[in-house]
UniProtKB/TrEMBL annotation:
Protein family membership: Belongs to the FAD-binding oxidoreductase/transferase type 4 family.
Lineage top rank: taxon: Bacteria
UniProt KW Translocase keyword: no
Source lineage: Bacteria, Pseudomonadati, Pseudomonadota, Alphaproteobacteria, Hyphomicrobiales
Keywords from the UniProt entry: FAD, Flavoprotein
Cofactor entry: FAD
ATP-binding is among the record's keywords: no
Protein species of origin: Pelagibacterium luteolum
Annotated protein name in UniProt: FAD/FMN-containing dehydrogenase
TM stretches of this protein: none
Domain annotation FAD-binding PCMH-type: ranges: 39-219
Pfam families in alphabetical order: FAD-oxidase_C, FAD_binding_4
GO MF, one example: catalytic activity
GO biological process, one term: respiratory electron transport chain
Length: 470
């Protein structure tokens, strides 16, 4: 049965009340436009349930009448999973499902409604004297449901893991409106298949997460943070190995940055002055989170050795929280500055950590071969093997013409990634951006298992049609 927009809005209004339904296309802009402005399809309506029961009622109705639903949380996703693909969908926003169900600092977990923003989750943890260690630049808007739906990573995966590893249990409404009650706080639970981990990272195609039990950690006493000059990605890898051996899991971040990223920030006024010690082709932002009762100095001692061995050529250890902040801002702005410099081609890829230098050398050469003059701005989570392998247009080039060659650059870079045993989506997911690519590169048996799971949990294809599996 195909319903008109009026019929859809009227049915949703009956279920939720007029104040929880957006039916006017002109009022949907904030829900249908996404950060990269790549996807531009309308929605039939936006539903904003306030309770899990209301969400269940919406899904029961959608299932019965065959209306497609796009789950949306903070709308910060970078692969278009949270916005419509066909234009016949209803966006179901979980933004009003906000709140704290419980916090148990002693046991080390909290249970939050899925519409709580990541920033609010940090504050709730902090109020309890603890920490929820998932940090991403979009945390002011991203919500727990979306963070889990996309299995977000961020800058401390190295030590604490990604969203999946930080979650003990979830509650979710399924395509037919039934509810999966998996909100437990068990570290060990081998009672059959791992449904929680299936829902996490399913990008809204298998169920809508309504609440989650998340792990809490003791707050570090203080941070030791340094911005270090290294000659090459090979030297950065060597430094990583040394620091990791000395600091273990207290090494909570190890980020690689290229000189061009700093130059561009200076050029576009995003950094007032150069915070590095001297010019260098590459930099590492390394951070040790020192637990209470354990003295500091580990970073300095390790760096003395690394400088002695010529692995680090120069560097600055942050002398204040403000200086630490400056280093991190530099890192966080690496992606944004590229849009100020013109057109850019981006890849969120991972390889085994030891293969990162090869990825960078071979990937840049492959991209230059298909687009001479292309400028690599490769940065990111070296310690996780996850590089945001981005390229800016040649200086002064025509951005449109540059983007016409994007497909050739993608192919060149992905070929290197796959050759090195890597992944073409390290942390942002598949959404609608990479469905074709997934079909090309994913193991056929894994793909077939994914399809079987989708059709078992959502036989009518109600949830997020066309996403992930295409
Ligand atoms: C400036 C910026 C920086 C970023 N940095 C990082 C980073 O460092 N690491 C990283 O991993 N990502 C990063 N991202 C991507 C994005 O912020 C994350 O993927 C985030 O986790 C998405 O959360 P959200 O609430 O905005 O979800 P949305 O964008 O609303 O949704 C994301 C996906 O999850 C699905 N979904 C939404 N709600 C639910 C739910 N309740 N249950 C199940 N599925 C659901 C959607 O359908 C969609 O497929 C960044 C984005 C921006 C704009």
């Amino acid at each position: 049965m195909t319903l008109s927009r009026d019929q859809i809005v009227s049915a949703l209004t009956q279920i939720l009340g007029a104040e929880s339904v957006v039916g006017e296309p002109g009022q949907m802009t904030g829900y249908i436009s996404e950060p990269r402005k790549r996807f531009h399809k309308e929605a039939q309506a936006v539903a904003l349930p306030r309770t899990v029961a209301e969400l269940q009622a919406v899904m029961e109705w959608a299932h019965e009448v065959g209306v497609h639903v796009v789950p949306q949380a903070g709308n910060t996703g970078l692969v278009g999973g949270q916005v419509p693909l066909f234009g016949d969908e209803v966006i179901v926003s979980i933004s009003r499902l906000k709140g704290v169900r419980s916090v148990d600092a002693a046991a080390g977990h909290m249970t939050l409604d899925a519409g709580t923003t990541l920033q609010e989750a940090h504050e709730i943890a902090e109020d309890a004297g603890m920490m929820f260690p998932l940090y991403i630049a979009s945390q002011g808007s991203a919500r727990i449901g979306g963070v889990l739906g996309s299995n977000a990573g961020g800058v401390q995966v190295l030590s604490y893991g990604n969203a999946r590893e930080l979650c003990l249990g979830v509650e979710a409404v399924l395509a037919d409106g039934s509810i999966y009650k998996g909100l437990n706080a068990l570290k060990k639970d081998n009672m059959g298949y791992d449904i929680k981990n299936l829902l996490i990272g399913s990008e809204g195609t298998l169920g809508i997460i309504t609440a989650a039990t998340l792990k809490l950690f003791p707050k570090p006493d203080f941070y030791e943070t340094a911005l270090l000059n290294v000659a090459s990605p090979e030297a950065a890898l060597e430094l990583f190995t040394q620091l990791r051996a000395r600091a273990g899991s207290t090494l909570t971040a190890f980020e690689l940055m290229p000189r061009i990223g700093i130059d561009l920030q200076l050029k576009h006024g995003m950094a007032a002055q150069d915070p590095s010690a001297a010019d260098s082709d590459w930099y590492v932002l390394a951070e040790i989170s020192v637990p209470k009762g354990m003295g500091g100095g580990a970073l300095e001692a390790a760096l003395e050795d690394a400088m002695g061995a010529g692995i680090v050529t120069n560097g600055v250890i942050a002398g204040s929280l403000a200086q630490r902040e400056t280093f991190w801002t530099l890192r966080e702005q690496m992606s944004e500055v590229q849009s100020r410099e013109g057109a850019s081609i981006k890849h969120d890829v991972s390889v085994p950590v030891a293969a990162v230098p090869q990825l960078i050398t071979l990937g840049i050469a492959a991209a230059e071969a298909v687009q001479p003059g292309i400028r690599a701005v490769a940065f990111g989570h070296l310690g996780d093997g996850n590089i945001h392998f981005n390229f800016s247009q040649p200086e002064g080039a025509d951005g449109k013409a540059f983007m016409e060659g994007a497909e050739a650059v993608h192919e060149a870079v992905y070929a290197v990634v796959l050759e090195l045993g890597g992944s073409v989506s390290a942390e942002h997911g598949i959404g609608q951006l990479k469905t074709k690519l997934l079909k090309q590169v994913k193991d056929p048996v894994a793909l077939s298992m994914m399809k079987s799971i989708k059709s078992a949990l959502d036989p009518k294809g109600i949830l997020n049609p066309g996403k992930v599996l295409g």
